[in-house]
Amino acid sequence: MALIVQKYGGTSVGTIERIERVARKVIAARARGDQVVVVVSAMSGETDRLLGLARQIASRPEPREVDVLISTGEQVTIALLAMTLQKLGCPARSYTGAQVPIITDSAHGKARIARIDPHQVRAALDAGQVVVVAGFQGVDALGNITTLGRGGSDTTGVALAAALKADECQIFTDVDGVYTADPRIVPTARRLDHITFEEMLELASLGAKVLQIRSVEFAGKYNVPLRVLSTFQEGPGTLITYEEQQVEEVVISGIAQNRDEAQITVSGIPDHPGVAYRVLGPVADANIEVDMIVQNVARDGTTDLTFTVHRNDHERAMEILRGRQKDLGAREIAGDSAIAKISLVGVGMRSHAGVAARMFSVLASEGINIRMISTSEIKISVVVSEKYVELAVRALHEAFALDRAPHR
Ligand code: ADP
Ligand code: ASP
Ligand code: MG
Hints:
The chain is α/β, with parallel strands linked by helices.
């Protein structure tokens, strides 16, 4: 008998009919003799709807109250799924994050799971119940409701699988696996049978929202076998493993795009030692994460510093810097939120030179200007104007022949 954790995303539980489909899949897994823990998201659109209500009240509502509000989405789904399972003759019990309990730190809106007490869940499983757990939420040491960040139900699923030492964590969604690029942008994108944790972590960090970054980190750290599958069609999905594919040709595994960032340029700053610190220190002090950074070679004793932050932090970062413009002696502080980051990811890059040059030549031939570049061992990212995202991703997908299966 295996223990399986199945996570179903928002689209998969978007209507009562779809919840019934999920219930039948859970019952089928149980009929194969497995114990099943189900983690569910809020019904599709619900988290955004709730956030919209909060924004009608305040532009920056108190994070503790936002968590109380948005955690309700998942609570609705667990009750509806448990009722459906019961109606179909399957014993089931629902649990909120606090009831499990899933203990987190107190960082509202981006809480990290500190520990999970699996005793109750295990007892319910041993009593023959299907356990239905609310994704995305937990409780801090003081009893406050917390949430784990957008897409956080993936992390609930993986963390429960780790705590229960489950045999597999299955992420059911609206695509039948991890693709070489977002299939909504590239119609010829191809499903990957396997992908390494390392590559999946990069893809998730660089914008492929199919799995939340932390869920991949968690799965890698605790060695949880992780698979992405479709709720709506049968198939093997994509297995995320430690093994690298033994395929010589595979240099790039996937392309990701991220439209969540904004760019800030501080120009004409006197080029003294410590310039970068004087610009970025106050930004970091405000708890704003900086992603890419480029500092130009100084000319006439002054230099420019360009960096990117999350779009949600753009205004705040601009305010902070404008407040210090005089102190910094900067000529200008300019922002642009209509940017996008496009990244190529693949462990094969380690042993292949020339990928970056090829990427730049493809973008040049499409007339797309590159604003920033950053590279690591297994990825290359460029920042371009947002209006070129689709064009760039499709052109790169084609140029690197990602639609064609590699020969073994
Ligand atoms: P869920 O609600 O089930 O959590 P998400 O919307 O969070 O689903 O994630 C699934 C979506 O991720 C897909 O519909 C797809 O558009 C998008 N996506 C982005 N990049 C990829 C990729 N490389 N492979 C598969 N899906 C991707
Ligand atoms: N409902 C949450 C969200 O929309 C969590 C999730 O779906 O994973 O981000
Ligand atoms: Mg998701």
